[in-house]
């Protein structure tokens, strides 16, 4: 009951409750015996429209197709004097009446259903008004000359169920009364989804939540994110707004406005409509809003059309009518009363959600049989006169012959706005509702016949049936109707079907055609809950068959992301370029996304491109150049070694320890060759050997240089008389220096390999476009320990060589060692910042260059002068010449 109460204002709820209290508690209880209460005479104010057809069992009906303008009561005359003025008929809705009559006729003629029981019907109208809905519902229950609630004078009328009404207000005014008597009510309109808590209330339409889902799916399909809402100014409009607005937000859609519309049946005059026309019309002039959703009953749409027309007469230069209209299932295109002169061009291309239906050829044949001879049947006279704009001849009054109904009129000559020959969704629901009642009665008959005693006919059993006894069977009813569709209720007592989606085509003669272009059906096979055939849709001619756009601003193209505008709805935004390293591949992305680690953004930042695998290979110029240099220096070193071996007995080779010279040359050869470990695809073995081998062989080379320098210093110091350095002269000191310094570096490298060895690795981040295949040093600390120790040896060699640079040239290499160590230290001091500032294979090239340049410096500074004398000036390669040069 909480949901139901939320749909009613406090005033209307209080009035309804007061009416029920008066009717139900201040009047004697229901009695079927006429002798306990004398039925009064004729009602001085009878309800003017009804259709009664007798039968063993009666199906009641409350339809909605006639309305009056209800005027304010001033009590200057009897309040009922102007209760019924000239009626206005929504002629298109007369099909609802005919659908009920046709279904009853078809069942009575069917020997397979209720063959010994006839159905009748009693149909009233709700008049689009709450007061009259109460009145006609009570009239349906307690009809006689004058209705007295809770007294039933007509003993032949057995009301078994009631079908109605069209709108939510009508249905729930009815349920206030019918639920008290547990009479099954089968509503044929579309209502909010939660309102099913009344035990006697059944809905012949799908859950309206499916319609909400369908509208959202439609908006998302076409990318419409900026839409306008028109809703009725009543409780149903408030309910729709509260339920639908969150769905819009959850799906990235915004409502540009929500405009409330008063139903035309509740407006006293056109002047009132003119007062509100300006506010309703203004949103239509916003060219950014192309899509409008209209929720409400048909009179809501009729009022909107009239308002637009009135404004258009005074503002023709601002059409604003290149729009897409989305209409809900409660809304139908009708012409009635003062609006019959309007056309439908405004709604060309409109998309409507309609209650699912199947065409029934037999029903169309039934409609074709309707003719003026039906004048004595309920509602027919007023319908026919307003549909064909004629009057049936009254013998007692003079009549203009141009206005007399000729009897030649036919329903299929009327435009669809006045009457449709194809069964509508609501009529289809009424048709199924009658069959549901019939099948329920048939099921009860079959159930009771098994327990029936001999001589007790089933007809009598059904005549004595009480309405509340139908509920047990209604919930489980399921059958195939004449269209071949399965009809059943869900566990929420609503019809297990969906909504059709139609596209409206208009014609100049105020007629139109609705073409089915899709559907919303949660029970559809293969999970095809939402289907839209875009190619079948014909849009408003202003769009030139291009899919309309309805957004607050232009789309953010790929490569950009949305940036919300302050103070605006989230559908209104600016577009900003994606940050570095991110892309957007679609329009209107909230946030750019980062490319996978093995890809990088292209220039436009709308696509990720696979990164190239990068390492220093033998196929590129840097690799070829580095390998060529390393090979050249290696061959040159081998040549020097060969030269020194060939001239090993010459004084210049013998000077400063020949074995140490060979060791230094071999160490330099290994330094050049170690460069090849840095070229090519890094593997596990090359990564393990690369840095440790480089560190050890360079330490060996620098140790040999240090030993040479120390040997020179010690030799000259030992030549002084009484020098204590004589004992250090010899090969033992040299070997001790080389071995101790080299083993120390080897120990550092061993610890490195045992604790955190280098390994092959992929660097995804250093260079945006490349995946760098490299050797991860494992422990950066150990790597810099190796470099630091090598730098320590080089510094020591430089200091000693600098101190011995002025010793006699004939036995002194210190001057050349000094230059070589200066070059060596300069290279490796420059190496560290350069190595840290480069990335990828450039780091490898820097290290190879440092290895080759420092090794070449040692080779050139120390051995080039000696090779010059050995090869080019052999006359100087003797002891006398060397001593003479010094002298």
Short description:
This protein has 887 residues and is of the alpha/beta class.
Description of the structure:
Strand 14 and strand 15 form a beta hairpin. Helix 15 (621-646) packs parallel to helix 22 and helix 18 (684-718) packs parallel to helix 20 (780-803). 41% of the residues lie in helices and 14% in strands. The model is unreliable at 1-44, 265-270 and 316-320 (pLDDT under 50). The termini are far apart. An eight-stranded mixed sheet has the order 10-9-11-12-13-16-17-18. It has a six-stranded mixed sheet with strand order 1-5-2-6-7-8, with helices on both faces. It has a three-stranded mixed sheet with strand order 25-27-26. It folds into four domains: 2-205 and 426-485, Rossmann fold (3-Layer(aba) Sandwich); 208-328 and 333-356 and 497-543, Rossmann fold (3-Layer(aba) Sandwich), CATH 3.40.50.2300; 560-610, no CATH class; 621-886, Rhopdopsin 7-helix transmembrane proteins. The chain is an alpha/beta fold and 887 residues long.
